Amino acid sequence: FLPQTEEDYIPYPQRTLPLILLPQFGGYWIEGTNHDLGSSSTPEEPPPCPASQVKLEMNSIANIYRTHFLGKEHFNYYSVDSALGHLVFSVKYDVIGDQEHLRLLLRSKFKTYHDVIPISCLTEFPNVVQMAKLVCEEVNVDRFYPVLYPKASRLIVTFDEHVISNNFKFGVIYQKFAQTSEEELFGNNEESPAFAEFLEFLGETIELHDFKGFRGGLDVAHGQTGSESVYHNFHNKEIMFHVSTKLPYTEGDTQQLQRKRHIGNDIVAIVFQEENTPFVPDMIASNFLHAYIVVQVENACTDKVLYKVSVTARDDVPFFGPALPDPAVFKKSPEFHEFLLTKLINAEYSCCKAEKFAKLEERTRFALLETLYEELHVNSQSMIGLGGDDDKLENGGGGGSGFFEVLVNSRDDFFVICILSILYMRLELLHPKKCDIKV
């Protein structure tokens, strides 16, 4: 039926489309689907997000050695387990409150185990192998070897903190009305006032030439990745944004590979929408992009700017906070800035637990732990004069440059007694009931 006159026309309410549509065959989860602030002509203002809920996620285990061991009296050991691989074990005697404890930190190829055990709970003081079993029952080795290298702590803390990053790079994609393909998204050149306002909200626009901060893979010498970008220092974490409209545009290249080379290799990206056109996460073909935060603006460039937010990520990415409010609408404010950047960083941490990145981290961890083990072993052997030339060792030859070899060959009996006394006291700390060395 077609209306014959204007009077016959019946207006139908315009349907508001969601910010995100999930792909037809799944593979993604979504957060933040309600953006209705009320049906009145003057919608309610969104409530501010509680600051207590905006919390940066971090790998708490990675900081334990620096916090509790580094620069303090402790002992390090190493061994090899047939199932757990190379092991590096740190032991520290701690007094917490008025109780004595053992703080144990065991690194295997799979993970790092940490525990604090009251000594009063132990029937007898354990040896090192027994201590390792306290923190990980699967340990199956006959003995641990003491680390004797003076610079061992530097190597160990470097290994523990290899998972910590204070540098982040995120994509920012501008989606205009009715754009539903990757080619259209990466083909945008102009920045509307609303998008420019959002970029200014995200961070500072910086000149790339000779930029001294974290560059996120952008060229700061020859201008091959554009002349400017958006950067922000967030709680001592440096963030470089790969903005689609600021990366070089190549005439005749429908795929805009210069732009996709950077944004397609990010793990998390923001999609900015000025009008009501849904984003489908499989629009962009990328092996790396695992999460998108979609932001749609209302009342742009006024004193009543609102941002609707939805989040989507691949199915194997665990949920990450801070959780979106209901409805998921924010006023343009410092609180929303804090929320958004926290959500971006937490998204990247969470994406790293997805299968693709978790396997990559496993391989990296295995290689780094093997290297750490070898360095601790070789340098510890060298300290007692066993490293280096095998022929000299087999023939009983010289090469007596090890610390303990020099000590044993010393003619200063008083010096020898003093050093052995110190070693005895340290050994007694760990094995008071089994220490039968007489000085």
Automatic annotation (TrEMBL):
The Rap-GAP domain, residue ranges: 156-372
Taxonomic source organism: Cyprinus carpio (Common carp)
Function of the protein: GTPase activator for the nuclear Ras-related regulatory protein RAP-1A (KREV-1), converting it to the putatively inactive GDP-bound state.
One GO molecular-function entry: GTPase activator activity
Keywords, sorted A to Z: GTPase activation
A GO-annotated cellular component: cytoplasm
Protein name listed in UniProt: RAP1 GTPase activating protein
Origin: domain of life: Eukaryota
Gene Ontology BP term (one): regulation of small GTPase mediated signal transduction
Gene that produces this protein: LOC109091554
Record flagged with keyword Translocase: no
InterPro entries: Rap/Ran-GAP_sf, Rap/Ran_GAP_dom, Rap1_Ran_GAP
